[in-house]
TrEMBL record:
Superkingdom of source: Eukaryota
Annotated source species: Periophthalmus magnuspinnatus
GO cellular component, one term: presynapse
Biased composition (Polar residues): 690-707
Domain (Bridge-like lipid transfer protein family member 1 N-terminal): residue spans on this chain: 4-750
Lineage of producing organism: Eukaryota, Metazoa, Chordata, Craniata, Vertebrata
Listed name of the protein: Bridge-like lipid transfer protein family member 1 N-terminal domain-containing protein
């Protein structure tokens, strides 16, 4: 070796290997193999292990397909990594882009630790990126429908009776939690933490026009168990966590087989956003049912039971609590409700069978969960938009609600002798509602509470009863006559335009009860129904009905199939009601009116001076307590015109509904017949008298549609009936001013406004 060269030459290296009984070729091979082995371990080993696991799992598991793209683990760090994992079966699919889990095996295990402690130490961490969960079918449910309707089983092959009996026995058999905590895996892993980055949940397929999707960017979830709500149950599962940037959307289904004729009123990104929020906290809980205990015999044993134990003998709990934070928006309307109905009918189809009464669990059998409870709380300001369309133009009702609003839904899991009754209740705080009309102001209220009770009988086509009670506190509502057309368009868009079908008809009735506590109702009473909407200082004449209590009660009956006439009774009852008048600054009668009202208040005589006899006179009126007013303050120029302690208005309305024509009857007509039927109403009448008049033409269209077409002249239609009764207490007082009479003539009567709404809703 040359002393000047730092590295040995090829000859020197060969001599060295020959001297030590070696060979350069073996060194080269070892180096290449080592590099190849390192490359294999780095890039291909995890993929080959995933391929092997995929083959083994799919050979053992036959109810779906499981794929693992790559799999690797480290014993020292307790870490398992995986990539491109998905599970597919006929009903759903789960996909994971990549992730890992860490099991802290080095932590000390204490078998005597407290059982079902949600604050226990965490041993298992799971992190997932790109999580997707898609539900697109319900094979078991549709196979059950095939069996119910006597169809040939094509989805699931029929099972033998012995296998069905074994499955029913396995489903009934519940192993109770052993008192020894060391025998349960939950004692080793009491808490599991899961972090999900970019999650996506989907419900739909190519047979549905829209797919319900739930997106979120980050989710931090924790699973644990805690003691149950009742000592008779085993324990309670809980999953709590937070989600960021949550969006619930209705997205057009790819490769949809039908026609997309129903367009959404508003597109926000990929589809229609039903709900979105920056921060959402969830808390899911479910009791693991225990066994029904054997009833105690003897009075002595019954007396030993403490009252606390009796109070804890509640059914197992099951529910979900959702808390929405900042940036919460809700969007709904007729179009979204139609998509909800399509999803509901596909994933929860009706079997048209009488529901069986849920049997009471016997001693030794598992306890029954009675209901599922859903609660949604809003802890920040939120918005609610009610969207609908008319002539491809979007209209909206925009509602701002304050923090503290909530919604509760109770869905029974058992069926009684009369069926079951789900309930919906909630309240909205600091309500501020506006519309997309030029006159935007609609409703302002301190609180709006609602309670809906639906009664479903056991037989699917028996009469259903829906009750809706709404309570509004400190409300100010703004009426204009143009709102009649606005709400009529909303009802028309929400109502079904399909022909009545006796096979799917279900009789039902809606009972509404609306209660206003401390209310103001303002009517714009300008001449010729002209309304100023341009500035904040609106130059409008207003009439206001102010009172302490207003109860509106009516029922919408839909108990008959295609009835000739429909009847609705509308009742309005008010207490301590006043009518006030306000004129704008530009009105020439404003200051004379204020002067007359002020002078009248100063010289007003007591009511007992107008009585003929002292014995028949009522006692002098007591000083009234101050009443709530939001807009109609005396200091703002409002004048008292009418005072009614008790007021009752009853509207009995009977109308003739008009039903849409069936599609098959329209298809039977040719284009010439349809053209003749449409143009016949526009042609002048033809008279047969006179020598030069032509004879009336008889076409196939006029002959076939003589009895099916409705009369074109409104006078030929049978009349509707509107019966109005008004009752006021005898001690009501009215002060007639000139501007008041002009305002009453200019305003539209509210009773006819309500009657129009009911008429269009029935149609």
């Amino acid at each position: 070796m040359d002393g000047n060269n730092t590295f040995p030459s090829f000859v020197d290296l060969d001599n060295f290997l020959t001297k030590h009984n070696s060979n350069f070729i073996w060194l080269l091979v070892a180096t290449i193999l080592s590099c190849g082995w390192i490359i294999y371990l780095t890039y291909y080993n995890s993929r080959n292990i995933g391929l092997i696991l995929t083959l083994i799992i799919n050979r053992l598991y036959k109810d779906g397909y499981i794929h693992i793209g790559s799999f690797s683990f480290s014993v020292l760090s307790g870490k398992v990594m995986f990539r491109d994992v998905y599970f597919i079966n006929p009903d759903m699919s789960i996909r994971i882009q990549d992730g890992f889990l860490i099991f802290k095996w080095w932590k000390m295990y204490n078998p005597k630790q407290k059982q079902h402690d949600p604050k226990a130490e965490t041993r298992l961490y799971v992190t997932v990126n790109g999580f997707e969960f898609h539900v697109y079918n319900r094979t078991d449910l549709y196979a059950r429908l095939q069996k119910t309707f006597g169809l040939e089983p094509t989805l699931i092959p029929p099972k033998k009776e012995e296998e069905e009996q074994e499955e029913t026995l396995e489903s009934v058999n519940i192993k109770a939690e052993t008192p020894d905590p060391s025998t349960s895996w939950r004692s080793l892993i009491p808490v599991i933490k899961v972090n999900i980055s970019t999650g996506h949940l989907a419900f739909g397929n190519h047979h549905l026009p829209q797919t319900l999707c739930v997106y979120f960017e980050d989710a931090f979830l924790t699973y644990a168990t805690k003691p149950p709500s009742s000592h008779l149950d085993q324990f309670m599962h809980i999953v709590k966590g937070s989600l960021e940037n949550v969006r619930v959307m209705l997205v057009p289904s790819p490769r949809y087989l039908g026609l997309q004729n129903d367009e959404p009123p508003r597109l926000m990104g990929e589809g229609f956003v039903v709900m979105q929020s920056n921060d959402v906290d969830i808390y899911y809980y479910q009791d693991e049912p225990g066994l029904v205990p054997v009833e105690q015999e003897g009075e002595e044993e019954a007396e030993t039971c403490s009252e606390d134990d009796k109070l804890q003998d509640l059914p197992p709990c099951w529910g979900l609590d959702i808390v929405c934070g900042k940036g919460t928006d809700f969007n709904y309307g007729p179009w979204a409700d139609r998509q909800r109905d399509c999803l509901w009918k596909f994933f929860l189809p009706a079997d048209f069978q009488a529901m069986q009464v849920t049997e009471v669990p016997q001693p030794g059998k598992p306890r029954q969960i009675q209901a599922f409870e859903l609660r949604m709380n809003i802890i920040a300001d939120a918005t609610i938009d009610l969207l609908f369309t008319k002539n491809r133009e979007t209209n909206a009702i925009h509602v701002n609600v304050g923090a503290g609003s909530y919604l509760e839904v109770n869905i029974p899991m058992t069926v009684g002798q009369t069926g079951y009754s789900p309930t919906i209740k909630g309240q909205l705080l600091h309500v501020d509602a506006t519309s997309s009309m030029q006159y935007r102001t609609l409703l302002e209220a301190e609180m709006l509470a609602f309670h809906v009770i639906a009664s479903y009988p056991r037989v699917w086509n028996m009469p259903q009863t829906w009750q809706c009670e709404i309570e509004v506190y400190k409300a100010t509502y703004h009426f204009i006559y143009a709102q009649k057309n606005f709400f009529t368009d909303l009802i028309k868009d929400w109502a079904s335009d399909s022909a009545p079908d006796i096979y799917s008809f279900v009789p039902y009735s809606w009972a509404f009860k609306i209660i206003f506590h401390q209310f103001e109702m303002l009517w714009a009473a300008n001449q010729h129904n002209w309304i100023d909407c341009s500035t904040k200082q609106q130059e409008n004449v207003y009439l206001a009905a102010c009172g302490e209590t207003l109860i509106i009660d009516f029922t919408l009956p839909f108990n008959e199939f295609v009835p000739t006439t429909c009847n609705t009774r509308f009742s309005l009852k008010a207490e301590d009601t006043d009518m006030r008048l306000s004129l704008p600054e530009c009105h020439p009668s404003r200051y004379p009116l204020l002067t007359l009202a002020k002078d009248y208040q100063n010289v007003k005589l007591p009511p007992d001076m107008f009585m003929t006899g002292e014995s028949h006179g009522p006692p002098p009126p007591k000083p009234s307590k101050p009443r709530w007013r939001n807009v109609t303050h005396i200091e703002a120029g409002w004048v008292d015109c009418w005072s009614v302690p008790n007021f009752l208005l009853i509207i009995d309305y009977t109308w003739h509904p008009i039903y849409p024509q069936k599609a098959d009857e329209q298809l039977k007509q040719s284009f010439s017949e349809m053209e003749e039927s449409m143009l016949s109403a526009l042609r002048p009448p033809e008279h047969s008298s006179g020598p030069h008049t032509s004879q009336p033409r008889h076409t196939p269209a006029t002959a076939s549609n003589a009895y099916s077409r409705m009369p074109t002249d409104p006078s030929e239609l049978p009349p509707d009936r509107l019966h109005v009764e008004m009752e006021m207490s005898p001690d009501s007082q009215i002060i007639l001013y000139g501007p008041l009479l002009r305002a009453l003539l200019a305003i539209k009567v509210p009773s006819f406004y309500i009657a129009y709404l009911l008429l269009f809703q029935a149609e």
